[in-house]
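User: Show me a protein chain along with its predicted structure.
Assistant: Here is one chain, sequence first, then structure tokens.
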Amino acid sequence: MTSEVIGRIALVWRGDLETRRQATPGNNRWRDIFAALAALNIDAEPAVYCEEAADEVREQLLKVDGVLVWVDPLSGGRNRRKLDALLRDVATRGVWVSTHPDVTQKMGVKDVLYATRHLGWGTDTHLYRSVGEFHEAFPGRLQAAGSRVIKQNRGNGGQGVWKVEASKTDDALTVLEACRGSEPFVIPLLEFLDRCAPYFADGGCIVDQPFQARLPEGMIRCYMGTDRVVGFGQQLIKALLPPPPEGAASPDAQPGPRIMYPASAPAFQSLRRQMESEWTPQMMQLLGIERERLPIIWDADFLFGPRNAAGEDSYVLCEINVSSVTPVPDQAPAEIAQLAKERLLLPRTT
């Protein structure tokens, strides 16, 4: 006797029409999540998204109880505007969506770094909402504060994230984008400011933070299942670091592998405690996000901040990812499935 299926879920990721046609629960990078959902008697199906099949995807999503989404903000020259509108429409018809676009706009953008700058993960963060404000305030701040990192509001893969250093002798800047394979170059101040103007399109903005001197020590990714830590990833990164001296390594060398750890890993218990008992609840209250609206899976990327007098590490938030969190620690698929089950058992709303 088989157990009764408790609900249907669609997993959405970007592809083309052929990928959509061939997709099965077992032939993609989310197969462990499909398997974990099936183990809890949840019927999960792939829903590969491309703009050419938007109407078909919409009809598919209207037939399920919930949707889990893995689609980057920017990919192959395309953005998520049409998909987000589709997801909002589906959600108004009683299908729960994780992550709902309205929640993404609150916590999955760089603006959240400014909104939460007073929390324990914050730093000297500034926000520019117009080209004029950026032109007026950023040059003086750069001269006074040293190296800065500016970030467009919504992006991925290092697109629109720049380390900026001012020259002490003229108006030239040395800049380095965080995209893989980028190298530093010198550019006049006004030319760089103009280059950033597209980041303000469609209500966009720029966030400005100090460059973290301990960046070469790597980044810690804290994986969250709603409001609980489900694992960690630690990685040495190349982004915003100049290439090594000639002959030492190729400028196109890959960043170090991300080493995954369980939530119980001793090295990260201080960060876990702060995320679960302080920073996440504070962020939820500040942004007006209830627990059942939090992403089922999201992550927060931290750099090491200054050590305190006792030699203990501090952590600086550099990004929150909710659009396409992958890969995930080994135990995360089971956590995702359990949280999806909880959502399925909540009363449906329209």
